[in-house]
Amino acid sequence: MSSSDDLENFGAATRGVLAGRREEWTGTPGHPGAIVNPAVWRASTHLYPDMAALRAHPANEDGRFYYGRRGAPTQWALAEALTQLEQGAAGTVLYPSGVSAIAGALLTVLRPGDVLLMTDNAYEPSRVMGRGLLKDFGIETRWFDPTDLAAFEAACCERTRCVLLESPGSLTMEVQDVAALAAAAKARGIVSVVDNTWASPLGFQALRHGVDIVVMSLTKHVSGHSDCMMGSASAGPDWYRKLRLRAQGLGNVVSPDDASLMLRGLRTMKHRLEAESASALAIAEWLEGRPEVARVLCPMLPGSPGHAVWARDFTGGCGLFSFVLEGGTSEARDALIDALSLFGIGYSWGGFESLATPVDPASIRTASAWPLDGMEPEDRFGVRLSIGLEDTADLIADLERGLAAWAAQGAAA
Ligand SMILES: *Cc1c(COP(=O)(O)O)cnc(C)c1O
Hints:
Elements: H1 4-7, H2 12-18, H3 23-26, H4 51-56, H5 73-85, E1 91-95, H6 98-109, E2 115-119, H7 124-131, H8 133-136, E3 140-144, H9 149-155, E4 160-166, H10 178-187, E5 191-195, H11 200-203, E6 213-217, E7 231-235, H12 237-249, H13 256-288, E8 293-297, H14 307-313, E9 320-325, H15 330-339, E10 344-345, E11 355-359, E12 382-386, H16 392-408
Parallel strand pairs: 2-3, 2-4, 4-5, 5-6, 10-11
Antiparallel strand pairs: 1-7, 6-7, 8-9, 9-12, 11-12
Helix pairs in contact: 2-13, 5-13, 6-12, 15-16
The structure holds pyridoxal-5'-phosphate.
The site of pyridoxal-5'-phosphate has 13 residues, from α6.
């Protein structure tokens, strides 16, 4: 398998199995393609047989070994595999983390004096980037209501150069009308970037919905095993070339060992996401029926904010969602999380093990209302769950213990 065209007729699971496995990257001497997964090529120096070969080496091309910072076959195989999963992508740049991928994309597009519009439910480090890194480089960030197209259009000005979308958004999970936002941006000459970590290309084809650059934290679903960090940005030919040059300029490089772990995770991603989505939906439905729970924020759940757009635009989901408790205190919410034994307490998500973390959106948002319509002002304390691969019934039993601990704190009083 060598080009994305070869894979286009296959389903996503088959593509995940075949992607990135060029024969020259998986060969042993005399046996092209003999190894199933691309080997770990550790290399910084490329030796040339003679001066003529050194002088003849083409400048800065993909898939030509030159020096370690431009990668070697393991990294190229992962980048190509991700490109093959993203319809409309000409290439993928790898970064040492998801945050680094977001920074790499924004620093490719933005220049001093520009304005960045950022969705109000963005991942918090993205917000911090707007207030810190970008501000220091003379770029202004303004936030907009994630689900209000008119508010987005009203926020655009002559200096707006880029919009950062994230759908569903971190913590509160509203699904954005990415196609409408990307089209509105394009009409004004604004470049759209989306953080597609939640859905991955298996659940949402961002470039096909009109976005210019799609960014992902591979740390989550692609790794899937909570042992490795990386990020990616994929785009059509023009933005891919610019992303690649900017990443080279910033000295971004990922290790072949980590790229190999990511390739391993990628092979099973479709099936992990399906299992986690099914379990998450069952747990979301169970939570919705509980008196302790004011609102479940899970795009896959009918009636949840953003479900209609999710059902229209997405082909899959994942195990990450939040719920908000019916009133109560921060201490009671802590007691709930402490009472869980199968859910680890920790950041990140998308691993095979379930996690729970507290969610306090009211303290983060600046451009849109929280709590949502239909919730009481005291419904402020949320929990975010990342559902892993444990049995659903065991996770529900664990959550039942957690809700009992919450109630025992007099939370409902
Ligand atoms: C975790 C995360 C990131 C950042 O990824 P890292 O690999 O941890 O740097 C970016 N966006 C979203 C939505 C995330 O959840």
